[in-house]
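Lecture notes, unit on binding sites. The following record was shown on slide 14. It pairs a sequence with flavin-adenine dinucleotide.
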Amino acid sequence: MSSTNSNYPEIREAVAKLCSNFPGEYWRALDDTSTYPTEFVQALTDAGFLSVLIPEEYGGAGLPIEAGCVILEEIQRSGCNGGACHAQMYTMGTLLRHGTEEQKKKYLPGIAEGSLRLQAFGVTEPTSGTDTTRIRTMAVRDGDDYIINGQKVFISRTEHSDLMVLLVRTTPRDECKKPSDGMSVFLVDMRECLGKGLTINPIKTMINHSTTELFFDDMRVPAANMLGAEGKGFKCILDGMNAERILIASECIGDARFFIERASAYACEREVFGRPIGQNQGIQFPIARAYIETEAAALMVYNAANLFDEGTPCGSEANMSKMIASEAAWHAADTCLQTHGGFGYTQEYDIERKFRETRLYQTAPISTNLILSHVGIHELGMPKSF
Ligand SMILES: Cc1cc2nc3c(=O)[nH]c(=O)nc-3n(C[C@H](O)[C@H](O)[C@H](O)COP(=O)(O)OP(=O)(O)OC[C@H]3O[C@@H](n4cnc5c(N)ncnc54)[C@H](O)[C@@H]3O)c2cc1C
């Protein structure tokens, strides 16, 4: 075992044990019918793994983000898919860091015990794309409520979540001093809004990810559900995004480990031309290279996690670790597929499913080009291109 996967050994062992009850057949059946992994998510909830980051005073385990990383890494390493529920772990961070005491007491204990699901995070819109400051969904104050109109796209797990953290505009962009001003965050209780201004439509994608498009048509949300100050919503979601990127980076590390372990095992056992294919350096070296890349990426992920846990600003580290880990996973996926020859394409090996799943992380939650641009501008001082 390498030093990059020896932290929290008890948690690793417990997660691996739980995941062994959800083998490839389980995920393949869900994939065929685009069904949500309800039993898997319930098992993780019952074991307390999804509430580890919630402080003890609100019913969680109060562990550092590094523990969350370990959990997601082991889920992916075992061949399962944490994408179905990873947001239950970190979306609450916006509420925890920016909510009032009253809001935290109202929601966090339910989220911690699993009776309340907060695993939807609504930012992306069809017309704004990555340029978040151009979102158009607008909330207008009306007495004790806000009335929300607009549209979101690719908002995952809304059909399996009670609550959603939603980013909207409360002041039009052209009336603000800075483009990032004038946005606000609401904690939307979707149980109250569904059919009353909120419409959810599933979007079929190349992976089983329960993603949806949302339409808001005069949807009423109590003003009491605003998180943080009006107009300061962009700041509120930024530190949550760092947590998201670090945790998703560790999912990528888990995916990479899955592919490398499968590839090296197959390379030892498959014999062609009278010897194991792994004896050929054309097969052995790409797997070794993928392993080295993964180890390097894991160091960056755990460095970002430690900075986050210390409270040190870590925007660049979170972004860089997500980028390098998603690329390590993708290279490992490609190598694993190639190592398996034709069998890699068959569903029963689970390689093609994981191959599709791990591709997402170069696009979401933030695409590679946007990370390169962040580093070029903020770390290297080069001019902004947009
Ligand atoms: C399965 C899935 C689940 C998702 N879940 C969620 C969710 O739960 N919540 C949520 O809010 N969003 C979610 N998303 C959305 C995701 O975060 C976005 O797709 C992603 O951020 C990219 O935005 P976009 O699709 O609008 O691409 P665009 O912004 O249209 O960009 C298209 C391409 O152009 C590149 N590009 C754009 N501008 C530049 C530039 N200036 N320089 C260089 N390259 C550029 C981008 O990097 C990208 O590769 C999800 C997406 C998917 C596919």
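Take-home: The chain has a mean pLDDT of 97.
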